């Protein structure tokens, strides 16, 4: 029964790979993002490394979905038993983190205010500008390649291995004179000397 219960809570719905939890009234999105509108107006600190995109993992933490940071695999966004916490992997599931939301509802559709811990960990600072929202997983970068002659042929509907039919050539021989240019007989050898003799007479 326990195995069946775990399996039913981890079934994927038909809505494009969204994980639907049987005992929850909400769908766990495949990717969410923690971001701040203007970092210039917030306290600096280590908590800023927890900003960014998180991807849904197949495991649960404290009975709720958990997301792993898309760029840093040792950072998590998980349920700590009371609310949500952005925490390192070695403290996963503990009531510890650098960012927290003290509400058990879905982190991406929650009206609660996130809090950040300064580096000394002395207190929590409310961060009204910090939001958790749906995010699209990054797409692979498209590499531009300069078109080659074979690519151009394929774009024109021809294959690179096919040979084009020879273009029609003019019917004239390469040695035949152009029809638009009058032809003259070849000069006779010594014709200049003969012309001079005719003038002298």
Question: Care to describe what's here?
Answer:
This protein has 201 residues and is of the alpha+beta class. The protein contains 3 helices and 11 strands, in the order αβββββββββββαα. A 9-stranded antiparallel beta sheet has the order 10-9-8-7-6-5-4-3-11, with no helix packed on it. A two-stranded antiparallel ribbon has the order 1-2. Strand 4 (52-61) and strand 5 form a beta hairpin. The chain is rod-shaped, with a radius of gyration of 39 Å.
Describe, in short, the structure shown.
This protein has 201 residues and is α+β, with helices and mostly antiparallel strands. The chain has helices at residues 2-9, 149-155, 191-200, and strands at residues 19-20, 27-28, 31-36, 52-61, 64-69, 75-79, 84-88, 99-101, 114-116, 125-127, 130-134.
Report the β-strand fraction as a percent range: 15-25%
How would you state the average pLDDT, rounded?
76
| Low-pLDDT residue spans | 1-22, 158-162, 172-177
Order of helices and strands: HEEEEEEEEEEEHH
Helix content class: 10-25%
Distance between the termini: 134 Å
The backbone outline, from C-alpha atoms, is: rod-shaped
Structural class: alpha+beta
Count of individual helical segments: 3
Largest sheet: 9 strands, antiparallel
Task: Chart the SSEs and their pairings.
Blueprint: H1 2-9, E1 19-20, E2 27-28, E3 31-36, E4 52-61, E5 64-69, E6 75-79, E7 84-88, E8 99-101, E9 114-116, E10 125-127, E11 130-134, H2 149-155, H3 191-200
Antiparallel strand pairs: 1-2, 3-4, 3-11, 4-5, 5-6, 6-7, 7-8, 8-9, 9-10
């Amino acid at each position: 029964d326990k195995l069946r219960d775990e399996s039913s809570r981890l079934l994927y719905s038909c809505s494009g790979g969204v994980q639907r939890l049987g005992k929850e009234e909400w769908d766990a999105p495949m990717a969410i993002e923690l971001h701040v509108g203007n970092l210039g107006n917030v306290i600096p600190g280590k908590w800023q490394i927890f900003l960014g995109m998180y991807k849904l993992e197949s495991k649960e933490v404290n009975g709720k979905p958990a997301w792993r940071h898309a760029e840093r695999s040792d950072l998590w966004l998980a349920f700590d038993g009371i609310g949500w916490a952005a925490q390192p992997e070695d403290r996963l599931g503990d009531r510890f983190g650098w960012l927290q939301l003290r509400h058990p509802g879905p982190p991406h559709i929650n009206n609660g205010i996130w809090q950040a811990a300064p580096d000394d960990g002395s207190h929590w600072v409310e961060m009204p500008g910090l939001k958790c929202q749906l995010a699209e997983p990054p797409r692979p970068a498209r590499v531009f390649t300069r078109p080659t002659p074979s690519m151009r042929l394929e774009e024109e509907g021809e294959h690179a291995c096919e040979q084009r039919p020879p273009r029609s050539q003019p019917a004239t021989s390469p040695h035949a004179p152009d029809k638009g240019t009058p032809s003259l007989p070849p000069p006779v050898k010594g014709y200049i000397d003969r012309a001079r003799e005719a003038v002298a007479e």
